[in-house]
Amino acid sequence: MALWRKLRALSTADRWLLAEAGLLLLVCRIGLWLLPYARLRRMVDGTSPPAPEPPRDFPERVSWAIGALARRLPAMTCLVQSLAAHALLRRAGCPAELRIGVQAGARNAVKPLEAHAWVECEGRIVVGDVPDLAEYSVLRASAPPATAAAPRRS
Asked: N or C: which end of the chain has fewer CB within 10 A?
């Protein structure tokens, strides 16, 4: 019941953000089970009309929404959260970058290679901040997946 009261106390904008974040988290989670990564990225990043200037605090609101939902939904890995946050930020017109990194020689002998995903926006980490983030080597700065070029007509 306390959760319902908290939800009702939110602004309409925050409720819509939670709804969109929840939908994207579920789409990303199911998509990672069923689709190749590149296809899922094209699907969630998509092309959307240019958004008006997002509110200055939008990255913080996205961080809050993704974190609040990820704590309550099962199997919300760092990759799922990062994909959803990246899509939300890009749709709002924020210059976000999805990063995937690896940590060689991890402390766990069973898993000698650790991977982690996070999202940066304007030099700040929006989703995926962990204490040892500096120890991860970025595999590549993940730009939106390329789409096939339309054939030229003469």
From this structure: C
Helices (H) and strands (E) in the chain, counts: 5, 4
DSSP single-letter state for residue 97:
E
User: CA 133 to CA 101: how far, in whole Å?
Assistant: 9
* Burial degree of 7 (CB within 10 A; 0-12, 13-18, 19+): exposed
Residue 120, CB-side half-sphere exposure with 13 Å CA sphere = 13
Give the pLDDT confidence of 39-97 residue by residue, as tens digits.
999 999 876 666 677 788 899 999 999 999 999 999 999 999 999 999 999 989 898 99
Question: Helix axis angle, 37-45 relative to 12-34, nearest 10°?
Answer: 160
Least confident of 4-8, 70-74, 114-118: 4-8
What pairing do the DSSP bridges indicate for beta strands 96-104 and 113-121?
A: antiparallel
pLDDT at residue 1 tops 70 = no
| Adjacent-strand bridge partners of 127 | 119
User: Measuring CA to CA, which residue among 13, 19, 139 is closest to residue 79?
Assistant: 139
Q: Beta strands 137-142 and 96-104: pairing type?
A: antiparallel
